[in-house]
Design goal:
Radius of gyration: 21 Å
Structural class: alpha/beta
Strand order of the largest sheet: 3-2-1-4-5-6-7-8
Number of strands: 8
Shape: elongated
Oligomer: single chain
CATH class of the largest domain: Alpha Beta
CATH topology of the largest domain: Rossmann fold
Strand content: 5-15%
Number of domains: 2
CATH architecture of the largest domain: 3-Layer(aba) Sandwich
Helix content: 55-70%
Distance between the termini: 39 Å
Largest sheet: 8 strands, mixed
Order of helices and strands: EHEHEHEHEHEEHEHHHHHH
CATH superfamily of the largest domain: NAD(P)-binding Rossmann-like Domain
Length: 276
């Protein structure tokens, strides 16, 4: 991967994160290209990373073996139609990080038989702690699949799904998931202030506790249920607090929330694939 030419269509935050991760992994900046319409963004990319840049999407697509579509889902159809000629001529691997746009629609816009990996990263990828699910269509070779995984792994962990429909479930749990945890942190912080702590104290304690719990879960072979039980002493403060949360049917609320997010992901896929 370190010498594979990779082109990014779109030079926003996610492209910045991926490029930074790839360079940290030892990629040669001269193998990386970025297409972006904003001159100031191109200047920033050149100065920060030393990569090739262009305002022309087609020029970048003609130079590389991998094209990463890092534009907003709402403009992906227009971008893909513009790239179709170059993609059909040079046959690069296409990696889409645009949420909601289905592989079948992307292939159709790109002109037919195209090796496409659709991915669903989340915003912690911006600090290289992301969680990304990937789906490969039938035209992706094993080597291309490995290459796609290496690229996305530069900003966090990756998993593969065999059924593209599962990406809607991934969107519900990890794509939207950071917001759930931010909401919990927000609630804890405000509750702490209500109990008399200074705002700065409540925030610091909340953030460090969230970080520590996540780190414990990542480094332990035990399930969250086991870890929860281990810190819940019978008759203690934790047991009392958890009883209140469970009485409010927290688990049921999360199930309903994820089902709503998955359904909305499916609806957006239909809308994005069939623009009026």
């Amino acid at each position: 991967m370190k010498t594979t030419s990779i082109g990014f269509i779109g030079g926003g935050n996610m492209a910045h994160s991926l490029i930074g991760g790839l360079l940290a992994d030892g990629c040669d900046p001269h193998t990386l290209w970025v297409a972006e319409p904003r001159p100031e963004q191109l200047d920033s990319l050149r100065q920060r990373f030393g990569v090739h840049t262009s305002s022309d999407n087609g020029v970048v697509a003609e130079q590389v073996r991998v094209v990463v579509l890092a534009v907003k889902p709402q403009v992906l159809r227009e971008v893909a139609l513009q790239l179709a000629v170059a993609v059909q001529r040079y046959k690069p691997l296409i990696i889409s990080i645009a949420a909601g746009v289905r592989e079948s629609d992307l292939c159709r816009w790109l002109g037919g038989t195209v090796a496409v990996v659709r991915s669903m990263p989340n915003t912690p990828a911006l600090v290289r702690c992301g969680a990304t699910a990937l789906f490969a269509n039938a035209w992706v070779s094993p080597a291309q699949k490995q290459l796609a995984e290496s690229i996305l792994r530069a900003v966090g962990l990756t998993i593969w799904v065999d059924d593209e429909r599962l990406l809607d479930s991934v969107t519900a749990i990890s794509g939207s998931g950071p917001a759930y945890f931010f909401l919990v942190m927000e609630a804890l912080e405000q509750a702490g202030i209500g109990l008399g702590l200074e705002p700065g104290q409540a925030r610091l304690l909340t953030l460090q506790t969230a970080f520590g719990a996540a780190k414990m879960a990542l480094e332990s072979a035990d399930s969250p249920a086991v870890l929860r039980a281990r810190v819940t002493s019978p008759g203690g403060t934790t047991e009392k607090a958890l009883a209140v949360l469970q009485a409010g049917e927290l688990e049921t609320l999360f199930t309903r929330a994820l089902e709503a997010a998955r359904q909305r992901a499916r609806e957006l896929g239909e809308l994005l694939g069939n623009p009026t």
